[in-house]
Every structure is written in structure tokens, then in C-alpha cells.
């Protein structure tokens, strides 16, 4: 016995939204730090840069959340099946 598929619902493909969040965060960080002087420390992190990275990720996450809530069709979609209940699923 298997479940009967009643149809499909279009839902955002959450695993594919990860790269979108990374790109958006990187763009925000690049814009906010574009005028910073070149660090003599090279690749060492500073507390100020750490705060900027955390802020960029938080801001990108908030924007992505609002966009998905109000305009989910903008993002990659996947078909998610919904199932028809059978006799075993209905309480008597």
C-alpha cells in the first residue's frame, strides 16, 4: 500500500537559497567596506570587520525572509506532493 498523491504545491527550494544568501551578504559587505583603507594585517580579522560581516548576513537574511514571504515566486521553486488521506488516516 502506498500513499495517493493528490497533487503538487509549488514551494521555495530552500537548499538552493543558500547561495543567494551568501551572494547577497557578500554584496552588502563589499558596499559597506568599499571605502575602508587597505589593512596592513592582510588576512587577519578585526573586531570591526567581524561586526560588519555579522550585520551583512543579518541584513541579507531579513531581506530574503521578507521577499520569500511576499514574493516567493521570485526564487527557485520545487514541486512538493500533497497526499490524499486514506481510510487508515481518518480517525473513527
What's the overall geometry? Answer: elongated
Could you tell me how far the N terminus lies from the C terminus, measured between alpha carbons in angstroms? Answer: 20 Å
Structural class by secondary-structure content: alpha+beta
Cα radius of gyration in angstroms: 22 Å
Helix-strand pattern: EHHE
Please tell me the overall pLDDT.
81
Give start-end ranges of low-pLDDT stretches.
none
Report what the structure shows:
The chain has helices at 14-33, 47-70, and strands at 4-12, 77-84. The chain is elongated, with a radius of gyration of 22 Å. The mean pLDDT is 81. 3% of the residues are buried. Strands 1-2 form a two-stranded antiparallel sheet. The protein has 92 residues and is of the alpha+beta class. The two termini are 20 Å apart. The chain is built from 2 helices and 2 strands.
What is shown here, in short?
The protein is of the alpha+beta class and 92 residues long.
State the main characteristics.
92 residues, alpha+beta, two-stranded antiparallel sheet, 2 helices, elongated
Task: Reconstruct the topology from this structure.
Elements: E1 4-12, H1 14-33, H2 47-70, E2 77-84
Antiparallel strand pairs: 1-2
Amino acid at each position: 500500500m502506498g500513499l495517493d498523491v493528490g497533487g503538487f504545491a509549488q514551494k521555495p527550494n530552500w537548499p538552493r537559497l543558500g547561495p543567494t544568501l551568501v551572494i547577497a551578504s557578500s554584496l552588502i559587505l563589499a558596499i559597506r567596506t568599499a571605502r575602508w583603507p587597505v589593512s596592513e594585517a592582510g588576512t587577519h580579522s578585526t573586531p570591526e570587520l567581524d561586526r560588519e560581516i555579522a550585520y551583512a548576513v543579518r541584513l541579507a537574511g531579513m531581506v530574503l525572509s521578507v521577499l520569500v514571504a511576499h514574493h516567493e515566486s521570485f526564487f527557485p521553486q520545487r514541486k512538493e506532493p500533497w497526499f490524499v488521506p486514506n481510510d487508515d488516516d481518518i480517525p473513527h
